[in-house]
Here is the input.
Amino acid sequence: MQQELWKIPADWFVRWFNTPAYHRLYGPRDQAEADAFVDVLADKVFAGLNNGRLLECACGAGRHAIRFAQHGIVVHGMDLAENSIARARERAKELGLASPQIQFSTGDMRNPDHVAAHGPYDAITLLFTSFGYFTSDEEHLQTLRNFHDSLAPGGMFVLDFLNVHKVQRELVEHEVLTRSGKTFEVWRRIQAGWIEKAIQYQQGGQTHLHHERVRAFDVDILSQMMDEIGFHLHSVVGDYRLHPWTEDSPRLILICQKQ
Here is the structure.
């Protein structure tokens, strides 16, 4: 069982993020938390960006992208999951937001043409641990290179990542969760530089198994990657109020600038 449990496909994120079960397990994300984070970024990091252009990469169902648009920023949201993009478009329409203020498309952050399609941008965000999924270091570097190349000079890039120190201390190896009447069995481990999760549930009389797998990048590794790409690391903060990062912080957020 354990051997089968941890057979993680390289493209796990393509399969899992586009399933109804993913949205059911995690439910509605905390919109108030997202709004507060975007408000702080708009005020303290992207000040003066009104009518500027922002790419929200891996935008999911658009909770951050929509809030950026409400600040007067011209936003393009991109995600690999068609289901998420459909939800984002529906939500924006419900709120009366439309092109050119906000647009959404499917795309792969590793593809330079997908990232640059609506640029150059004044800002790019990659929020809520949407990085570290890929098998090779070069894929991660290529992604960062795509962002750097698609920014206008002086443009800002914000990477919101997990704090590996906190994850290691608080890891729950196994639990059973019930969401809207559906039961999910979840296993977690840290293995060979990866933070891994196996998620199993029943649907249609069959057992389904999905995974999440994120590289255990710490602040030093991410800082070195930014330097290699040519970003200036403006600051490192540890929460959505932009307090300084420590090993006890809930998040690891790098704020970078293209020179």
Observations:
- Residues 121 and 151 are 5 Å apart (CA to CA).
